[in-house]
């Protein structure tokens, strides 16, 4: 799914409206009976960025995106999308979306589905061939949508979202259900699409996906936006795993080091919060103090750990 | 709305289920209004009263075809129109395509009116084709029976077409209304058919016994549909229709307008979850 030559430039030049914040919400709340799905959400997506909307299952991502598209009404609070009220025709004209799973007519071919969507949206039907090629579905475009594989359906969903050459592309977990190759291709496509002026709002529950694709990220947890910023900021300082003997002495030593944050023993090894760049320095100090270091490596912080950190900070 | 209308037409045209329902309307009309009565007439059981036999024969003749077609569309045809209404709206929920089309561009009202217009056009085609099928069948049978081939007057034809269209519109609108209400196909079809085939029948039984039930029955959909059809000249043994054409037209229009209006409001207001 690479973007090639002239078409790439074409794709990378959406229409523009002017101001700098493309999506902003204020006190956005959705309550389903006793479930508070989205809770006083404040988020802002800037023009031209690829924004990762990160949260675990049930955090409220889809509910938020549906409110931004006018599919569901907020219980309270407001949102402005591309300068308009969510769901208004003038706003929607600049927004392409794939929410939850792709949904099309099973008895129509992929191409006919796109033609129908172009008719609804007022996009020229000549766009259909372009977007089909962009997602590499041209050869199967004449087949019935009902017979498509999950990956093909997902790609058709992205193609439909691109029909309007939208300024803002909203994609809700677009790599869901794809195999590793499909995921990699989809991510590459999104990166390409997000270059230049186009703004992409991408939801995901995968930290590394967001890290690969996004410029900025908002973290949603139980309906609340608990952090918003550059990916590196959200990540924190990172962490190191250190296997050393004697353990107790090593722990005391690292706790005394200024570059080390929290340190604890997890599964027979030290887990210390520190910039991975300071690994050599930490190693030197430990060895210098007579501690035997058998392993020292940076760890990828999992989403769960990031959440733990962010939520504990919030509560603390 | 023009865009929605075009897209809806494309969907209706390419959808196998629509063709199945359409073909069923034509096939059942020919079978139940012409083929079956002809077979009964041709192989007449001894002892059948002359009056009944005569009416049976008359109903097959060209002169009565607008009434025959309309009677069919008021009954079984109405049930099929209801299914068409449910399918055109309810399937969008089943496939989840409501959210896809509502995130395109037009507002909800525009999407819904585009759909309604496309369905109206489909119904016009269906009614005209039904009349054509009735016309052809009756010409053939008139010849077979050795009667003179005499077209009914044009005014009767247009009254028949108008009445039929109003009848199927009312049924289809009820189907669309139920589909929006239940956001679903199966339940809407089920409840619609139970109403059309069972509820009205039961109320009809009590209507002949109790006055106030009768008053309610006179405002029901199937009752007025068949009453309107029976206003057209029919070879009947029974007496004149008990409901006036004006009453039936008013009641059917009421069903059409009210079910459509509620469907629009609900479709516009409700969350697409
Ligand atoms: N239609 C609904 N009725 C009742 N509760 C709902 C409805 N839709 C969502 N919820 C609840 O709202 C919360 C947020 O759901 P949402 O689908 O927005 O999460 P999500 O972040 O998209 O999760 P996932 O990663 O699993 O897609 C959940 O607790 C869910 O059960
Ligand atoms: Mg979701």
Q: Quickly give the structural class of chain A.
A: alpha/beta
Largest interface, per-chain counts?
A: A-B, 33 and 26 residues
Unique ligands = adenosine-5'-triphosphate, magnesium ion
- Count the beta strands of chain B: 0
Query: How many distinct folded domains of chain B?
Result: 1
Low-confidence stretches of chain A: 1-18
Q: Encode the helix/strand succession of chain B as letters.
A: HHHHHHHHHHHH
Total number of β-strand segments of chain A? 14
The radius of gyration of chain B is 20 Å
CATH superfamily of the largest domain in chain A: P-loop containing nucleotide triphosphate hydrolases
Instruction: Tell me the fraction of residues in β-strands of chain A, as a range.
Output: 25-35%
- Assembly type of the shown chains? heterodimer
| H-E order of chain A | HEEEEHEHEHHHEHEHEEHEHEEHEH
**Which architecture name of the largest domain in chain A does CATH use?**
3-Layer(aba) Sandwich
Strand content of chain B: under 5%
What is the overall silhouette of chain B? globular
**Can you tell me the number of structural domains of chain A?**
2
The percent range for helix content of chain A is: 25-40%
Helix content of chain B: over 70%
């Amino acid at each position: 799914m690479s973007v090639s030559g002239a078409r790439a430039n074409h794709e990378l030049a959406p229409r523009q409206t002017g101001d700098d914040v493309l999506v902003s919400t204020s006190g956005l709340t959705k309550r389903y009976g006793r479930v508070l799905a989205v809770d006083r959400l404040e988020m802002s997506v800037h023009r031209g960025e690829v924004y990762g909307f990160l949260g675990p299952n049930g955090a409220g991502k889809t509910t938020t995106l549906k409110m931004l598209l006018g599919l569901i009404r907020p219980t309270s609070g407001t949102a402005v999308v591309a300068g308009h009220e969510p769901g208004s025709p003038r706003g929607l004209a600049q927004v392409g979306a794939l929410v939850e799973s792709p949904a099309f007519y099973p008895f129509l071919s992929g191409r006919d589905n796109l033609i129908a969507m172009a008719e609804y949206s007022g996009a020229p039907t000549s766009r259909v061939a372009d977007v089909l090629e962009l997602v590499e579905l041209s050869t199967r475009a004449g087949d019935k949508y009902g017979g498509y594989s999950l990956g093909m359906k997902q790609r058709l969903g992205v193609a439909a979202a691109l029909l309007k050459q939208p300024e803002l592309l909203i994609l809700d977990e677009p790599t869901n259900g794809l195999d590793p190759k499909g995921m990699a291709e989809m991510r590459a496509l999104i990166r390409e699409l997000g270059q230049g002026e186009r703004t992409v709002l991408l939801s995901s529950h995968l930290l590394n996906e967001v890290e690969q694709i996004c410029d900025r990220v908002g973290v949603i947890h139980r309906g609340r936006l608990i952090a918003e910023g550059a990916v590196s900021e959200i990540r924190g300082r990172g962490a190191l795993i250190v296997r050393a003997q004697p353990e107790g002495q090593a722990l005391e030593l690292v706790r005394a080091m200024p570059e080390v944050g929290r340190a604890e023993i997890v599964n027979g090894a030290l887990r210390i919060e520190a910039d991975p760049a300071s690994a050599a320095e930490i190693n030197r100090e430990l060895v210098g103090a007579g501690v035997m270091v058998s392993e020292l490596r940076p760890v990828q912080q999992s989403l769960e750990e990031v959440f733990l950190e962010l939520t504990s900070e919030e509560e603390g | 709305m023009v865009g929605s209308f075009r897209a809806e037409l494309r969907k209706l045209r390419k959808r196998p289920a629509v063709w199945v329902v359409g073909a069923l309307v034509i096939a059942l009309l020919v079978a139940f209004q012409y083929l079956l009565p002809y077979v009964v007439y041709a192989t007449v059981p001894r002892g059948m009263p002359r009056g009944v036999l005569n009416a049976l024969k008359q109903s097959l003749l060209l002169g009565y075809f607008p009434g025959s077609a309309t009677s069919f569309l008021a009954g079984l045809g109405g049930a099929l129109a209801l299914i068409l209404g449910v399918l055109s709206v309810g399937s969008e929920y089943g496939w989840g395509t409501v959210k896809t089309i509502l995130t395109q561009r037009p507002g909800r009202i525009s999407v819904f009116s585009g759909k309604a217009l496309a369905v109206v056009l489909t119904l016009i085609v269906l009614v005209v084709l039904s009349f054509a099928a009735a016309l052809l069948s009756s010409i053939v049978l008139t010849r077979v029976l050795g009667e003179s081939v005499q077209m009914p007057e044009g005014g009767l034809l247009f009254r028949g077409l108008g009445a039929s269209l109003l009848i199927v519109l009312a049924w289809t609108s009820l189907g669309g209304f139920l589909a929006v209400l239940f956001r679903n196909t199966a339940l809407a079809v089920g409840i619609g058919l139970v109403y059309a085939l069972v509820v009205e029948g039961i109320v009809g039984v009590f209507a002949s016994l109790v006055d106030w039930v009768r008053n309610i029955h006179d405002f029901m959909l199937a009752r007025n549909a068949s009453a309107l059809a029976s206003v057209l000249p029919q070879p009947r043994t029974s007496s004149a229709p008990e409901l006036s054409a004006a009453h039936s037209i008013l009641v059917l229009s009421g069903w059409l307008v009210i079910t459509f209006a509620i469907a629009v409001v609900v479709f516009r207001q409700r969350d697409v979850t």
